[in-house]
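Hi Q.,

Before the meeting this afternoon, I wanted you to have the AH0 prediction in hand. No need to reply - just skim if you have a minute. The sequence and ligand are here:
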Amino acid sequence: MKTQAGIYIGVMSGTSLDGIDVAVVQLGQELKLIGAKCYPIPNETKTAILGLTQPGDNEIERLGKLDIELARLFAAAINHTLHDLNLNRSDILAIGSHGQTIRHRPKTGFSLQAGDPNLIAAQTNIKVIADFRRKDLAYGGEGAPLVPAFHADQFKSSHTSRVILNIGGMSNITVLPTQGEVRGYDTGPGNVLLDAWCYRHRSLPYDQAGAWAASGIYNASLLEKLMSLPFFHETPPKSTGREQFNIEWLEHMLNQSADYQLSPADIQATLLELTARSISDAIISEKHNAPEIYICGGGAHNTALIQRLKQLLEPSSIATTESLGMHPDWVEAAAFAWLAYRALNGLSGNLPSVTGASKETILGGIYQAG
Ligand SMILES: Nc1ncnc2c1ncn2[C@@H]1O[C@H](COP(=O)(O)OP(=O)(O)OP(=O)(O)O)[C@@H](O)[C@H]1O
Ligand SMILES: CC(=O)N[C@H]1[C@@H]2OC[C@@H](O2)[C@@H](O)[C@@H]1O[C@H](C)C(=O)O
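Predicted structure with the ligand bound:
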């Protein structure tokens, strides 16, 4: 089938709320990343997002406002990127906009992302593809993770089994065997608890290179308690979010015992161990003999976490996706450019072996410009 080859834009603002990633990607033949940039999210917007991730008062009004506010930020980020790269809007075939996840309840059958695509189309004058998760949910899937299809398309090898590990706010793996079905699912927290604890005690958005965690000693009893959460023991398909992994959950667990007497640094070390163990347990359970592991997402910059994963996953080799030709910071945004390309060309975007959907299907709605 002849597809529309050309330039697509992917926009991603993930569960970490660290920024809005925009990736400009040539697709259709070999993928080429033309340019990428991360734009800040204003503090008031972050607060509004966090305020909607848990049930509360006046939700519809607050969501309506946020939907517009985020769309304006996404459109401004796209327009800025086009200007920076000296590109015309007529050069872009479509934008794939993930939106900001507000609530993800796959067992109830919904996943809600904010950032009105109509407004993005109006303010960029470019066609927008958005609402990628709900068609997969409509066919009984989790609606997440979606990037494994992109990982399979870009990073699969016929010689050696590979695992692509995204460490964002949450962590998810994609298992790429040399033959047979691709698997993938969320393993649990990525940086979300590390970030929240670091902010609480040091007023910093994240633990630079994991140095604070590395200064503490993890507590085995607290780790065991955190690891007893049913999510870690469920069989895939599975996906998660801030609904489960948040500071209130952590505090609840700490308050249940004397663990709250641990020093903040020891608790940070325990959270790093929780992230590392939940990831390594998942990879080991896949029983592929020493797969090559490639990391993407902001967690790739957490030296202490990567160090610990190397120990736990020996003798597998661990590198970032940079070794496969894609900088770890832009994989997710590039994936949404690719998903836009798939949708615009009438190609499926989900993998039933990952999400549990009953069929492969085209993901996303098309919002025309003009
Ligand atoms: N130098 C660093 N040292 C330690 N951690 C870092 C560093 N740089 C980024 N991070 C971590 O990476 C996070 C951002 O990761 P990323 O952008 O992949 O998340 P996301 O896309 O929001 O999440 P998700 O994949 O769950 O949607 C930051 O919040 C921080 O925890
Ligand atoms: C509902 C939602 O936004 N989930 C995110 C989150 O962040 C990581 C992990 O949890 C993954 O399931 C997903 O993001 C990527 C982009 C995905 O769908 O593959």
